[in-house]
Amino acid sequence: MMIHKFLLGMSMLLPEQASSYAADVDNLYLFLVGLTVFFTVLITAAIVYFFVKFRRRANDPIPAHIEGSVLLESIWSIIPFIISLFIFAWGAKIYLEQYTIPNDATDIYVVGKQWMWKFQHPEGQREINEVHIPIGKKVRFVMASEDVIHSFYVPAFRMKEDVVPGPNRYSTVWCEPTMTGTFHIFCAEYCGTSHSAMIGTVTVMSEKDYQVWLSGGAQQGTMAERGAALFSQYGCVTCHKSDATGQCPKLEGIYGTEVLLEGGQKAVADDSYIRESVLSPMAKIVLGYKPLMPSFQGQVSEEQLQQLVAYIKSIGPAETPAAAPKAGAAAPAAKAPPIMMSGSPEPAPVAPTTTATTPSPAASSQPVQKR
Amino acid sequence: MKSAISQQRFNRDGEPQTYLNNGHGLRSWFLTKDHKRIAMLYLVSVAFFFAVGGIYALLIRINLLAPNGLFESDTYNRIFTTHGIIMVFFFLVPAVPAVLGNFLLPIMIGAKDLAFPKINLLSWYLYIFGAAFTVIAVIAGGVDTGWTFYTPYSSTYSNSNVLLAGVGIFIVGFSSILTGLNFIVTVHTMRAPGLTWFRLPLFVWANYATSLVIMLSTPVLAITVSLLAIERVAHVGIFDPAIGGDPVLFQHMFWFYSHPAVYIMVLPAMGVISELIANMSKKNVFGYKLVAMSSLAIGVFGFLVWGHHLFVSTQSVYLGIIFSFLSFAVAIPSAIKVFNWTATLFKGSISYDAPMLYGLGFIGLFLIGGMTGLFVAAVGLDVHLTDTYFVIAHFHYVMVGGSLMGFLGGMHLWWPKMTGRMYPEAWARAAMVIQFVGFNLTFFPQFILGYLGMPRRYATYPPEFQVLHIFSTAGATILAIGMAITICYLIWSLKKGQRATPNPWGAAGLEWMTTSPPPTENFYETPVVTWEAYDFTVVRPEDVTGMAAE
Predict the structure, then answer these.
(1) Whether B286 contacts A53, CB under 8 Å
(2) Minimal Cβ distance to A5: which of B77, B335, B467
(3) Shortest CA gap A175–chain B (Å)
(4) Which 3 state secondary structure label does DSSP give B355?
(5) Chain A closest CA to B261's CA: distance in Å?
(6) A293 alpha-carbon distance from chain centroid
(7) Does B325 touch chain A if contact means CB atoms closer than 8 Å?
(8) How far lies B407's CA from each of A40, B94, B170, B375, B425, in Å?
(9) Strands (E), A121-180
């Protein structure tokens, strides 16, 4: 049994290449392995040769003084520098690919907590420590932590991103699965006692199987529908009126647009902005409104918050009605404009722009998502 | 300058005068201001903590023999945290500077002592004081945060002895700072007549560069640990987002110290290697100035790369790319050193003695450690590698393969100078080979484990990783046997070793121009240096043979 596993393991010194960028990562890895072997052999051969040829013999004279060589030292400074530049550029290119989230990605919402992973599909399915996604579809993981820092790691996808707690950010990462099968999910950032038990699986299914899977099981509405219910339950609706007569900004059509703030700053109403507005409403006050809203920190769970975000998104410029259609049809979130995530609470810097997939009069530019 | 052997003085009992027999009893040791005695105090202390840290390493490896682990997760978490804290703060940081640097730096520059002998003794007491807090933390139940103390786990969630360990690290930091200060002032003000900066041994250059890094970075560690303590005790929101803090801020501050700390750990060992390679091949170091300057360059660049620990910590993508670029920049001076050391061997007279074996072992392991540094500096690849066993393997190749090999090599080269006794050569060569094999068997499989996705700090793991873990544990056992052999024969040699001549290796450097062990004042007459570093023509044969010229 163990021998069998060993042979299987040795035949695969790389994990499965199950995402669109996995092969790119492996190519750089294999190039670097080759480079390491080359330099190790080169230096080792030189050392062994010198070691044998110039070994100390009885009555060796004192070896001649050799000062150094500007030419040689320049060569072995400049060549490593050029090689380094090349590897740097290669690594940076892959990094941009890994962290530039495509516009047409479907959202899966992830909550990390000591010590489990919880997933929500826009269609309403909820999973713990396992998540099902279709092959060949781009998936964006929108992640929040309930407690400490976790890290969402799927080795087969070469995908990893820390899930950092805090009211002002979601962590996001994306992948496009290219192979059906079941792969490990690991928490890669040490998070306490059962860190090593904070593991799970991601199952990549064919589109057909995925649709079957989606339609199975009891559901209590899509995420957006649940969000709509929460919107009433928490009384949000009493101030955020849809006819803009409330004491607070109207939220219809706001998702993904640029919001003018008190103090002249601007912010993009993305997932992180909505999250921050619920948890620390005083952080960013919309121009012309009074800071009236209480914080919902501690009252709304991370999963409910994600449902609220899904609801706000569903009433965004995509013109989807509040009660989003049931699963099966293309998920409304898939059409939502890309959002800007920022590692800092400041308004995100201007990022490269692309044409909006869902035109909106208020959104003059649609930033490609980067952290 | 007369040969050391002809200057030898004798005390009233007819024994040669040395720093070791100038005063007896505990008081003469614990209140000493002699840098050599303080170095020996440090040697005993760091050796103790190395042994403790090593035992914890073995416990880690034992746990990982089985996929479900042999210890409770909580126990395992405390074991790897203790291993990390002890090895980093109480062995790797002080080992080479506080033992070999303390002993040799004044002698190498022809001085009688460090600039501030009392502060030097204070450094050792601070080390012991800080270590006491950490030991209490471990005995009182341990710490489970990992040596990186990431918030908000460490500041809010962990119910282990974070504060005690933090206080220990805070205090031991000042021990490093004071040693760094002492070295810098000493090198600037106390060099012997004629000993210009570019005649300094490269070991002095390396310790000088290290001291600068220590002075500039360690205060940031003190600040970070203090803020952590303030948040933990007074619940002031600094790092915990639940009370208004930012957890990633902690990572920036922590690595602003802890990445330079990597160079604090490895630069002095690089200095040792320059001495080993030169002296054991009787060649001047190829491209002396470039090697000296590369130490300073590593020190400077080391401050600009902390963000490469945060590639997946929601740091801006553009910041990640900049830190990646700067990390590649720091690779160049390291590469230069490896090439220059190799070129030094050319047309040398190469000894096969243990110090040289350690020197070559260092080059081989540091080469792999350095090359795998390129893997983790390449930002898109590091996304997959970070927080896996690949990183564990990488930094153990640098820290154990580099710093520990350097430390052991230096201990063997200067053992006769420090103790007046030769170590048994055959045992030493055998131990080195055992350690080299054991080390590679321990850590090479971890590169593969890491690429396959095995995360670090896992008490349990999926069964497909077991075979590689078993290899690794087997290697650790061999490595431990090798270390035990070294500790045994070094202790044996204190009494039974052959007496050392002033210069048993025929090495160049002022430390070989005084007796073994040196007298308290190091030199009976202040040396006047008229030669360049690593000039083997000034080696006096009578110091090598120990026979006074007729």
Answers:
(1) no
(2) B467
(3) 13
(4) helix
(5) 21
(6) 30
(7) yes
(8) 22, 11, 24, 26, 17
(9) 126-128, 130-134, 139-145, 150-154, 159-163, 171-175
Rounded distance, CA B55 to CA B70, Å?
A: 16
**CATH number given to A223-367:** 1.10.760.10
Q: From the candidates A41, A59, A149, which should be mutated to test the interface with B, based on the most B CB atoms within 10 A? A: A149
Terminal-to-terminal C-alpha distance of chain A:
44
Domain residue spans of chain A: 9-53+66-99, 106-215, 223-367
- Residue B432 CA to residue B414 CA, distance in Å, equals 16
Instruction: Find tokens 């790319």 and name the residue.
Output: B321
Question: Which pLDDT tens digit goes with each residue over B409-418?
Answer: 999 999 999 9
What span, in angstroms and rounded, lies between the C-alpha atoms of B490 and B438?
A: 20
Contact B351 A344 (CB under 8 A): no
Residue A235, helix vs strand vs coil: coil
Of residues A29, A55, A92, nearest to B379 (C-beta)? A92
The predicted-structure confidence for B221-273, as pLDDT tens digits, reads as follows: 999 999 999 999 999 999 998 888 999 999 999 999 999 999 999 999 999 99
CB contact under 8 A, A84 and B331: yes
CB atoms within 10 A of CB A126: 15
Report the CATH number of the A9-53+66-99 domain.
1.10.287
In the prediction, which pLDDT does A4 show?
57
Q: What is the percent of chain A where pLDDT is above 70?
A: 81
- Residue B125, class by beta-carbon neighbours within 10 Å (0-12 exposed, 13-18 middle, 19+ buried)? middle
> Environment class of residue A330 by beta-carbon count within 10 Å: exposed (0-12), middle (13-18) or buried (19+)?
exposed
CATH number of B32-544: 1.20.210.10
Q: Is A208 on the interface with B (CB under 8 A)?
A: no
Residue recorded with tokens 């929500």: A120
- Checking if the pLDDT of A356 tops 50, the result is no
Whether residue A113 is predicted with pLDDT greater than 60 in this model: the reply is: yes
**Chain A residues touching B277 at Cβ < 8 A:** none
- Our CA-based measurement puts residue B367 at a distance from the nearest CA of chain A, in whole angstroms, of 7
A190 touches chain B (CB under 8 A): yes
Taking CB atoms and an 8 Å cut-off, how many pairs form between chains A and B? 306
The residue in chain B having the minimum alpha-carbon distance to the alpha carbon of residue A101 is B317
Query: Of A222-226, A334-338, B461-465, B536-540, which gets the smallest average pLDDT?
Result: A334-338
Give the residue extent of every domain in chain B. Answer: 32-544
- The complex scores an ipTM of 0.93
The pLDDT score that the predictor gives to residue A371 is 55
Q: What is the pLDDT of residue A339?
A: 38
**Banded model confidence at residue A103, pLDDT cuts 50, 70, 90:** confident
Residues B305-326 pLDDT 10s: 999 999 999 888 999 999 999 9
Specify the CATH superfamily of domain A106-215. Cupredoxins -  blue copper proteins (2.60.40.420)
Location of structure tokens 């050029």: A82
pLDDT at A258 over 90: no
Note whether A77 contacts B459, CB cutoff 8 Å.
no
The CA dihedral of B220, B221, B222, B223, to the nearest 10 degrees, is: 50
How many helices (DSSP H) and strands (DSSP E) are in chain B? 19, 0
Query: Averaged over B40-49, what is the pLDDT?
Result: 96
pLDDT value for A277: 86
Helix axes B354-377 and B425-452, enclosed angle (nearest 10): 10
By the CB < 8 Å criterion, does B352 face chain A?
Answer: yes
- Best A28, A148, A191, A300 member to test B by mutation, with max B CBs in 10 Å, is A148
